[in-house]
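Sample entry (79 residues):
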Amino acid sequence: MDRGFIAGRIYQEVDNPDALCFEQDWSSEPELKSHIRSNCFTDLLMLMETSPEVPVLEIHSIRDVFGINYIEAVRYSDS
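Predicted structure, serialized as C-alpha cells:
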C-alpha cells in the first residue's frame, strides 16, 4: 500500500449501473502526486483507456476539482 493512502472504494452508480466508480482518499497532495507518478497509476490509466465509453477522471480537493490536465501536469513535471 502506498504511503499516504487512507481508503478506497469501488461502486456502481444507482442511476447508471454501467458506470464503475473508483475513489481513493489521500492524506496529502504530495503523497497523491507520488501515487499519480507511480506504475500502479499508469496501469489504472491504461485500464481506463480500454473503456468503451469516454472515462471521467476527477481529482477532488477541499477547494477544487481537477481533471486530466492536472494528471498530465503532475506526471510530466520535473518536481
